[in-house]
Write a structure and sequence with these properties.
elongated, five-stranded antiparallel beta sheet, Aspartate Aminotransferase, domain 1
Length: 192
């Protein structure tokens, strides 16, 4: 146990028992406990394997390369349609955690083997994400913006495209695009 991570468990208002049991299960698999993104993150040879996090209606173990796991029990959940590789196992009470403990350990060991093997997930290309027509029009009219957008990393490009596309109304998409233009021109991502 890493003392730096204790604060996460001590401050938890919900899921206290579930978090403690998940921590014990994961540490029993020989992973190193670290604090990343404000959550307990468990690594093997400095590579992220799983993370514990909580939400209003459930707590979860997130497998960073979950899409590459076999999932014979069908317990891995894709958070949203835009999440490509990570998968969650969700819990709503301590009994569920205790019942799934042996299965979780098998999945964690498989995740470690996936990491050791160097297996990489196949990600969708940026061109496979939908380009909002408002942004496409602006890019066609502004060569400098088009160049700046193409120079962004694929992940930053995808983040912008998802952000723009998620707006239901055209005026909202345009507003988001206008706010993002200075960041794109500076080579920064959506959350930089």
């Amino acid at each position: 146990m890493n003392p730096k991570v204790d604060f996460f468990f001590n401050k938890a208002k919900n899921w206290q028992q579930e978090f403690e049991k998940l921590r014990t299960i994961i540490l029993d698999c020989g992973l190193t406990e670290e604090l990343k993104w404000g959550c307990p993150c468990y690594t093997y040879d400095r590579k992220n394997i799983v993370l514990i996090h909580g939400f209003k209606e459930y707590c979860a173990v997130l497998f960073f390369k979950g899409a590459l796991l076999a999932d014979p029990k069908g317990i891995l959940i894709q958070q949203t349609e835009n999440v490509q590789v990570p998968r969650q196992v969700r819990f709503t009470n301590l009994k569920e955690v205790v019942k799934l403990a042996p299965v979780l350990k098998k999945y964690i060991r498989e995740a470690i083997e996936v990491e050791k093997s160097g297996l990489k997930p196949e990600l969708k290309k940026t061109s496979e994400f939908s380009m909002p027509e408002e942004f496409d029009k602006i890019l066609k009219e502004d060569a400098a913006l088009k160049r700046a957008f193409k120079e962004l990393t694929p992940g930053r490009q995808r983040a912008y495209l998802l952000h723009f596309s998620s707006a239901k109304q055209s005026k909202t998409r345009v507003s988001r695009i206008e706010k993002a233009v200075p960041q794109i021109m500076e080579g920064r991502g959506l959350d930089d």
